[in-house]
Amino acid sequence: MDNASVPGGALPVCNDSVDRYSPTPANSSDPSCTPPSDFYFYADLYVILPVIYSVICAVGLTGNTAVIYVILKAPKMKTVTNMFILNLAIADDLFTLVLPISIADHLLNYWPFGDILCKIILSIDHYNIFSSIYFLTVMSIDRYLVVWATVRSKRMPYRTYRAAKIVSFCVWVLAIIIVMPFTVFAGVYVSPDDGRKSCVLSFPSPESLWFKTSRIYTLVLGFAIPVSTICILYTMMLYKLRNMRLNSNAKALDKAKKKVTIMVFIVLAVCLFCWTPFHLSTIVALTTDLRTTPLVIGISYFITSLSYANSCLNPFLYAFLDDSFRKAFIKMLECIPA
């Protein structure tokens, strides 16, 4: 996450009045201003965070690449749901691919990669926020339509693999449009005190207003609207399933459809578990003026790591919850020459 949007993006200083709306805190160029009692806390963060990010990168890259490979290579895996899972894995893979650059930025404590790469990294960072929840929203809509058609004993001729490709393309276009403002404002900020370069969102004046607007923008489009949509869909879905059990003439969901619905629900629950603290921190940032203490910085880094971790968890969920994926993956491994 960019330093301007996540508390704790830079080391706190003795002066507690940190301007969280600017790319860097006041007096951050004075290393002697860090309280001695907090020195070991920051030293631990300096070592622990790259380790956590590296594990997320390695596991996420391996797992999501395996998901992409299996879905593309196994003929039986070419289903509507798996098309959305494929795009979700691509989004997660894209994020984990650039995570090493964020690790290098953290270790170096300055941005050496130039303005263009800064825009690319921050754009992909924000794609990760929007694309994951949007594909899960589409998957929830798809599950609702499947349940609705099953309850009504109707066929769904429009629900095809090709249609899923078109919908996935539209989701990517929507995500690109939504992320475009962040791409425009992303850039390299040079500290006037020590010349240190940072890759941040550089807003025009008044910075505080633009900062709050960007956080509300992300909260509404990246969380409130899609999560509300998902909650409504699953509430309606559960209502229909309950009525289906009461109606003896209605056909129950077959075993395969039920398993897929459960898998989508669990993947969604894990996504919300990882991302809800991040969006709650937005509400806190907008409604309070927290001092940049070691506790606040530690919590902010934990929240950021938790949101990053979502990019490596989904492959394990597919492996545990989807028999067809597990069988296809094992079959692929058997075909690989020793």
Automatic annotation (TrEMBL):
<keyword id="KW-0807">Transducer</keyword>
<dbReference type="Pfam" id="PF00001">
    <property type="entry name" value="7tm_1"/>
</dbReference>
<feature type="transmembrane region" description="Helical">
    <location>
        <begin position="163"/>
        <end position="190"/>
    </location>
</feature>
<keyword id="KW-0675">Receptor</keyword>
<feature type="transmembrane region" description="Helical">
    <location>
        <begin position="260"/>
        <end position="278"/>
    </location>
</feature>
<dbReference type="InterPro" id="IPR017452">
    <property type="entry name" value="GPCR_Rhodpsn_7TM"/>
</dbReference>
<comment type="similarity">
    <text>Belongs to the G-protein coupled receptor 1 family.</text>
</comment>
<feature type="transmembrane region" description="Helical">
    <location>
        <begin position="298"/>
        <end position="321"/>
    </location>
</feature>
<keyword id="KW-0472">Membrane</keyword>
<dbReference type="GO" id="GO:0042923">
    <property type="term" value="F:neuropeptide binding"/>
</dbReference>
<feature type="transmembrane region" description="Helical">
    <location>
        <begin position="84"/>
        <end position="103"/>
    </location>
</feature>
<keyword id="KW-1015">Disulfide bond</keyword>
<dbReference type="InterPro" id="IPR000276">
    <property type="entry name" value="GPCR_Rhodpsn"/>
</dbReference>
<keyword id="KW-0527">Neuropeptide</keyword>
<feature type="domain" description="G-protein coupled receptors family 1 profile">
    <location>
        <begin position="63"/>
        <end position="318"/>
    </location>
</feature>
<feature type="transmembrane region" description="Helical">
    <location>
        <begin position="45"/>
        <end position="72"/>
    </location>
</feature>
<keyword id="KW-0812">Transmembrane</keyword>
<dbReference type="GO" id="GO:0008188">
    <property type="term" value="F:neuropeptide receptor activity"/>
</dbReference>
<feature type="transmembrane region" description="Helical">
    <location>
        <begin position="132"/>
        <end position="151"/>
    </location>
</feature>
<dbReference type="GO" id="GO:0043005">
    <property type="term" value="C:neuron projection"/>
</dbReference>
<feature type="transmembrane region" description="Helical">
    <location>
        <begin position="216"/>
        <end position="239"/>
    </location>
</feature>
<keyword id="KW-1003">Cell membrane</keyword>
<dbReference type="InterPro" id="IPR009150">
    <property type="entry name" value="Neuropept_B/W_rcpt"/>
</dbReference>
<keyword id="KW-0297">G-protein coupled receptor</keyword>
<keyword id="KW-0325">Glycoprotein</keyword>
<keyword id="KW-1133">Transmembrane helix</keyword>
<dbReference type="GO" id="GO:0005886">
    <property type="term" value="C:plasma membrane"/>
</dbReference>
<protein>
    <submittedName>
        <fullName>Neuropeptides B and W receptor 2</fullName>
    </submittedName>
</protein>
